[in-house]
Amino acid sequence: MSKDKFLRGAMILTAAGFMVKIIGSVNRILLSRLLGGEGIGLYQMAYPVYLLLLSISSAGIPVAISLLVSERVAKNDYKSVRHVFKTSIRMMACVGLILAVLLFFAAAWLVNSGIVRDARAYYALTALTPAIFFASILACFRGFFQGLQLMTPPAISQIMEQLVRVVTMVILAYVLLPYGLEYAAAGAAFGALPGSLTGLVVLGFFYKKYNKDWQAKEALLSGVETLEKTSTLIKRMILLALPVSLANVMVPVSSSVDMLIVPNRLVEAGYSIAEATTLFGYLAGMAQPLIMMATIPTLSLAASLVPAISEAFTLKDFATVREKSSTAMKLCCLITVPAALGMTFLATPISLLLYGTAKSGSAICHSGLAIWLLGMQQITAGMLQGIGKINLPMLHMVSGILVKIFAVYFLTDATLNIIGAAWATNINFALTAFLNVWALARLGIKFKYGPIIKIILAALCMGSFCYLAEPFVLGSKALTILAVLAAGLIYTLLLFALGVLTKEEAKKLPVIKKFL
Description:
Layout: H1 3-58, H2 61-74, H3 78-112, H4 122-147, H5 152-176, H6 181-190, H7 192-221, H8 230-268, H9 273-294, H10 296-314, H11 318-345, H12 347-355, H13 361-367, H14 369-386, H15 391-411, H16 418-442, H17 449-473, H18 477-497, H19 503-507
Helix pairs in contact: 1-3, 1-4, 1-5, 1-6, 1-8, 1-10, 2-3, 2-4, 2-8, 2-10, 3-4, 3-8, 4-6, 4-7, 5-6, 5-7, 8-9, 8-15, 9-13, 10-11, 10-14, 11-13, 11-14, 11-17, 12-13, 13-16, 14-16, 15-16, 17-18
């Protein structure tokens, strides 16, 4: 596979990720205005349960199928590729059906036991049950296409799924609102079902489109190898998917650490409950969403990296593994280091621009470094998964969260308050990224640090400009946007001046090459 194809896949997934986030943001605004705080609260009591079950059932399946498919594609064994796909569909249909039935009958128990505090959330819980079944099957299709390194079908399906889901949520919430908030919240929750069905229809269309080509390759290239036993294949799929699913569950666990500890520590430090809630809102509701938005490109790059490295590793082409790893790390730093420094030094103007308040500036400033650290964690986890070391990223995430618990407790005090909590998150990501890099080094995968050092120097110069410009742009949205654009231009020119990015390298990048 060419480097151009690997980068194109990452850019396609990045564009889809941004589109999905934008559509989701519009949805949040519309639903908030329609349902108000109480209605959104009912919806939010049910939706995390759905996400948890989805994480358990299918979060690791795309990665597992992607690895299994890419291994067989590397050997031109397209007959086994089809066997992997059909087996995964049957397995996930059973898992999705079991979890859907489980949630349907457990909804009443969740309410009666007090785990879900408001009994009105029962309707939203039951409305989400059919979506689990179809979302589990959808995960198989996405993993299959990613394993074939065809990123356009999953990207289009994600956008269409989100668009249909949002439109359905808003329409049903509006139609059912006169009958009560509980029914409006249930209507919003039900939007997950038509969204999943739309994603399946889109990927089914692409499957039919490519099927003749796959059949021709299967007849021409596949040998007479005996297909792997279905039971053996399912066992391996579970062993690959389970650590990734557990790692995915660690993400909401990490957020829960902040939710459970930070407000209580702030109250113990002398803040009122209202003040503690407000400070926590600046961190969790304003700073952390910016981190997630800024790391969409690295998350997409990691998803594209897994099958690319897996294919090269299967062929024992270790030079290509190291080359793609170095390219991915360089791209990660190119994106995340300037974003981290820009967010750090223009924190207050950014807070005013996006949220209309300067009070979240401190939380945004001290959370800036997390962009780089989280990006490093995502990329290195993708590398480890690509070479089959599935367990290591999960174990490293657990280690990071354990350290974060102690860091949050000791750093969130009267002196540092929310700044301490932000640095606890930085410590978490830093430790996890370091452990991933250390594991890769022990496995013989090292990076070219010369370009990374030059990237950091260019970003520091850009950051100095942001630091000097901050007092002049404060309070002006137009000047803030101009400062961000100017900083980006300075950074780009410095990259060329330092030889980090040559015109020849830029020509290899999809989309950008058309302008050169």
